[in-house]
Design goal:
Elements: E1 8-11, E2 18-21, H1 51-62, E3 67-74, E4 80-87, H2 93-104, H3 114-121, E5 133-135, H4 138-146, E6 150-154, E7 160-163, H5 181-210, H6 218-227, H7 235-255, H8 261-278, H9 284-298, H10 303-341, E8 343-344, E9 347-348
Antiparallel strand pairs: 1-2, 3-4, 4-6, 5-7, 6-7, 8-9
Helix pairs in contact: 1-4, 5-9, 5-10, 7-8, 7-9
């Protein structure tokens, strides 16, 4: 098997064992800039498809002998190499054991990407809420390693899985810790607003126009009624046409060659939108609602969480059409209850909001760098503090 894999077997006389020496080499992509997680102030290096290159990037950033990389093979046929990475004197032993147990108890023929592995090791949920954070940036992965998380690398995939992941992790950007706290917290507030707009804005528009017209100022109500005067379709059919058309434009822009992608977006947004309004298929205000919703979804840093919000908003559109605010309120109650019940590797998904205890280091509000004394308390790390209370000893003696 050693020779089949391309390695070298070294036999030494008088020894009853052989040495497996890895000497094979492959053509591989060099370390390049990240494509999907672009930052203004920060390193411009991304993971590649070779697991050994990725582990070397982690070791260069951590620069400590406490970084442990355990090799695990997954796949009865492919025997894909995976790396379980954690910092020994920081990470919780129970968390490491749980991740290792799930990785060692997978019976599949093949494993080709980190996306497949994520689906195999997370807890099942009906709303497809992402429970593992995926990143292509070594600096982001190392930041989570130093906070007590566990990183899983898959050979052949340029993405690392960060475990566990809570709700606020999907709204954070690698640039947050490089900016001043005022700027980073303002941007995080913008992303939280974008989350609500993406999830609820179309449903609220349907509910208001169908059941709660009295909430609108008279002039705005007359403007909406005048814009929909020549539209022959009900509001639900109208908004579903535009939302599905927007998703088609987004998907087409991703699949076509790069030079043509922006052109398709411009054509879809301007030509098709204006043509739909001129033809009396949709109202102009609905175009504004769909556009704001789409822009809000683009502001979500994590693709998986953004995709979850994009699909879930269709449920709130239907609830708003069926029962107005009552339907949306009921849907929100069930949705939030489900988030509260969700766990990621034993950690409450909404920790810091519900329950309200154990809020140290939860990163909902990012304090100044000299006040970031504690690691997230919900991880129960071996070293809760990551810096002294007075870290700037040059200033405060």
């Amino acid at each position: 098997m050693v020779l089949i894999l391309g390695n070298c077997a070294l036999f030494v006389d008088t020894l009853d064992i052989a040495f497996d020496i890895e000497v094979k080499g492959f053509q591989q992509r060099t370390v390049e800039k990240p494509n999907n997680e672009i930052v203004i102030k920060g390193p411009h290096e991304a993971f590649v498809e070779n697991i050994r290159t990725n582990t070397s990037l982690l070791r260069r950033y951590t620069n400590t002998e406490e970084l442990i990389v355990e090799n695990i093979e997954i796949g009865n046929i492919t025997k894909t190499k995976c790396g379980l990475c954690y910092i020994k004197n920081i990470a919780n032993n129970d968390l490491v054991a749980e991740v290792k147990y799930r990785l060692n108890n997978l019976s599949v023929d093949s494993l080709l990407s980190s996306g497949q592995l994520e689906q195999l090791i997370i807890d099942n949920n009906y709303l497809n809420v992402p429970q593992a954070l995926s990143t292509e940036r070594p600096d982001k992965a190392v930041a989570y390693l130093l906070s007590g998380r566990v990183i899983v690398l898959v050979n052949g995939s340029p993405y690392a899985l960060i475990l566990p992941a809570i709700l606020i992790d999907f709204l954070g950007s690698p640039d947050d810790k490089n900016l001043r706290p005022t700027f980073s917290n303002f941007l995080k507030g913008i992303r939280i607003l974008a989350t609500f707009l993406t999830l609820l804005l179309p449903g609220l528009y349907v509910a208001i126009t169908s059941f709660h017209q009295e909430l609108l100022p008279t002039e705005l109500l007359f403007s909406i009624l005048a814009s929909r005067e020549n539209v022959p379709f009900p509001i639900i059919f109208e908004i579903l046409i535009m939302e599905i058309s927007f998703e088609l434009i987004r998907e087409a822009g991703l699949r076509v060659p790069s030079p043509i992608g922006p052109t398709i977006g411009i054509v879809g947004a301007l030509v098709l939108g204006q043509a739909a309004v001129s033809a009396g298929i949709v109202s102009p205000i609905l175009i504004i609602v769909v556009a704001i919703t789409g822009i809000g979804s683009f502001a979500i840093p994590d693709f998986s969480f953004g995709f979850h919000l994009r699909t879930t908003r269709f449920l709130f559109i239907l609830l708003g059409f069926i029962a107005g605010f009552l339907g949306i309120s009921l849907g929100l109650f069930i949705y939030i209850s489900y988030l509260v019940e969700t766990k990621s590797f034993g950690v409450d998904y909404t920790i810091g909001i519900s329950p309200l205890d154990n809020v140290k280091g939860n990163n909902y509000y990012l304090p100044p760098t000299w006040k970031r004394e504690f690691r997230p308390s919900f991880l129960n790390t071996k070293r809760p503090k990551k810096q002294d209370k007075i870290s700037m000893s040059w200033k405060y003696k």
